[in-house]
Amino acid sequence: MPAATQHRRPRRNRLVRTLAVVGTGAAVLALPLIGATTASAAGSSTTTASTTLAGYPNNLDGWIRESLAIMAEKHIPGTYDGIHRNVMRESSGNPQAINLWDSNAAAGIPSKGLLQVIDPTFKTYHVAGTSFDIYDPVANITAACNYAAARYGSIDNVHGAY
Q1: 145 and 65 Cβ atoms separated by less than 8 Å
Q2: Is residue 66 a contact partner of residue 127, using CB atoms and an 8 Å limit?
Q3: Does residue 56 contact residue 62 with C-beta atoms inside 8 Å?
Q4: CA distance 27 to 44
Q5: pLDDT, tens digit (0-9, with 9 covering 90-100), for 83-95
Q6: Cβ–Cβ under 8 Å, residues 125 and 140
Q7: Buried b (16+ CB within 10 A) or exposed e, 29-68
Q8: N or C: which end of the chain has fewer CB within 10 A?
Q9: CB 85 within 8 A of CB 148
């Protein structure tokens, strides 16, 4: 074929092809990881969902429900909705959350856990039968609700930082 009639691809096509190949390579590397995670969670009939020692799901819903059961035994007021609303505002549901920038943190006592409790408050309002670990979700929720009940009447009455 004479040079004048030979088809030449524009330069941008080479860039598109390169990106497509690179993207495909990343997908090939990622797919086995995604597939293995999905397969192991869904494929086994003997796999059970993670639960707390008390038998509740080991997730935000289960932690709140377990805390409410303890709160009912100890006559600490509060509702699922009140706890959930405050947890989402304070930590977005992360039991390992820690605030390193507010006035408590500046004083050396950062707020910790699902409901962002400081150590002295956690120790004072700790509820018997729960862990002494401030990062334990059930202990954190229950102590925070105990504090909110003493200070505001209930966690349901808390609509901002407390």
Answers
A1: no
A2: no
A3: yes
A4: 25
A5: 999 999 999 999 9
A6: no
A7: eeeeeeeeeeeeeeeeeeeeeeebeeebeeebebbbbbbb
A8: N
A9: no
Distance CA 141, CA 97 (A): 13
Q: Tell the residue number behind the tokens 């088809």, with chain if given.
A: 7
Residue with tokens 């979700």: 137
- Cβ-based neighbours of 46, under 8 Å, separated by 6 or more: none
Read off the tokens for 19: 């990106």
Name 117's bridge partners.
Answer: 112
pLDDT per residue as tens digits for the range 96-150: 999 999 999 999 999 999 999 999 999 999 999 999 999 999 999 999 999 999 9
Residue positions counted in the chain:
162
Does the pLDDT of residue 76 top 70, yes or no? yes
Contacts (Cβ under 8 Å, ≥6 apart) of 115: 83, 86, 87, 90, 91, 140, 141, 144, 145
